[in-house]
């Protein structure tokens, strides 16, 4: 009997679509060098789980608001999995490292939303802690490659063959509205997820960090730590809390 697509949990395909790669190696190295780590938007929890498996002996906390993603993470033991986002939980000076991997940063669509996230991350960090995250560099125009022809095929846990395609609906003022369509011959109809991602320049990221009391300690354009250029695919930032911001924003 065809599965009802409205019940289809697309988180089931996340790990198959996002296999372990150089970004995971980069964040795993950082996690292994820190005592207490918070992963904001941890998704299926791959990085923290790998840290524990590699012998990390300290506190590992994964936070995510999506129940389907978190259910997948909860299948991995050895980590504290927390449902929600930084607006709904308060961590106070508890972590040496906060991660935001897999372009989570791009879900925050306005400067105010980003400032709120940065302020909450700063509060969660111990003095001398680090905040590592990446955003796709607008100069590399990734959205131009998000076309149906560049879709991917995955095989699900029950052997179902699923095609995943992206369609960009609009690009305006750094905001890319897109849909992600999951289709399978066994399903009566496809499952469509819609969303918006913000593309922010390195200069904008740095200014927002400075406003919220961070200093950029390291910046790269790719996971091998090569320098950022105008067309690097990523803007990878490791920030440290600096002096308190003059604006009074935390
Ligand atoms: C592309 S996935 C990345 C997952 C994981 N970090 C990784 O690298 O594979 C984006 C994740 O961000 C989460 N997310 C969405 N809005 C969020 C928010 N406001 N705060 C924290 N996480 C959020 C989603 O639930 C999703 O799991």
SSE arrangement:
Elements: H1 14-17, H2 22-32, E1 37-40, H3 46-53, E2 60-64, H4 67-74, E3 80-83, E4 95-100, H5 111-124, E5 125-136, E6 152-155, E7 161-172, E8 175-183, E9 191-198, H6 202-211, E10 214-220, E11 234-241
Parallel strand pairs: 1-2, 1-4, 2-3, 4-5
Antiparallel strand pairs: 5-11, 6-7, 7-8, 8-9, 10-11
Helix pairs in contact: 2-3
The chain binds S-adenosylmethionine (SAM).
Task: Summarize the entry for a quick read.
This protein is α/β, with parallel strands linked by helices and 250 residues long. Helices cover 22% and strands 32% of the residues. The protein has two domains: 8-137 and 200-241, 3-Layer(aba) Sandwich (Rossmann fold); 140-198.
How is this structure best described in words?
The strands form two sheets. The chain has a seven-stranded mixed beta sheet, sandwiched between helices. It has a four-stranded antiparallel beta sheet with strand order 6-7-8-9, with no helix packed on it. Strand 7 and strand 8 form a beta hairpin. The N and C termini lie far apart (54 Å). It folds into two domains: 172 residues, Rossmann fold, CATH 3.40.50.150; 59 residues. It is an alpha/beta fold and 250 residues long. Helix 2 crosses helix 3. The chain binds S-adenosylmethionine (SAM). The site of S-adenosylmethionine (SAM) has 16 residues, from loops. It comes from Saccharothrix xinjiangensis. This is Class I SAM-dependent methyltransferase. GO terms for molecular function: methyltransferase activity.
């Amino acid at each position: 009997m065809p599965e009802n697509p409205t019940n289809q949990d697309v988180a089931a395909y996340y790990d198959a679509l996002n296999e372990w790669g150089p970004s995971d190696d980069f964040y795993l190295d950082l996690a292994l060098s820190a005592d207490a780590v918070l992963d904001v938007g941890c998704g299926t929890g791959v990085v923290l789980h790998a840290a524990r498996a590699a012998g990390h002996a300290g506190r590992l906390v994964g936070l995510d608001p999506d129940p389907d993603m978190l259910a997948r993470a909860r299948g991995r033991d050895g980590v504290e999995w927390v449902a929600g986002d930084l607006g709904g939980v308060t961590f106070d000076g508890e972590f040496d490292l906060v991660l935001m991997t897999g372009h989570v940063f791009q879900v925050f669509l306005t400067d105010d939303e980003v400032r709120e996230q940065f302020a909450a991350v700063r509060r969660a960090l111990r003095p001398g802690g680090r905040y590592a995250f990446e955003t796709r560099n607008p100069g590399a125009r990734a959205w131009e490659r998000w076309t149906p022809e560049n879709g991917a095929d995955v095989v699900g846990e029950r052997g179902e063959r699923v095609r995943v395609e992206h369609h960009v609906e609009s690009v305006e003022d750094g905001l890319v509205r897109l849909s992600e369509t999951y289709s399978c011959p066994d399903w009566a109809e496809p499952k469509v997820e819609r969303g918006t991602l913000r593309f922010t320049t390195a200069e904008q990221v740095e200014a927002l960090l400075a406003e919220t009391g961070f200093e950029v300690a390291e910046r790269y354009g790719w996971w091998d730590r090569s320098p950022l250029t105008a067309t690097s695919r990523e803007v990878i930032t490791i920030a440290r809390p600096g002096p308190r911001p003059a604006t009074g924003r935390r």
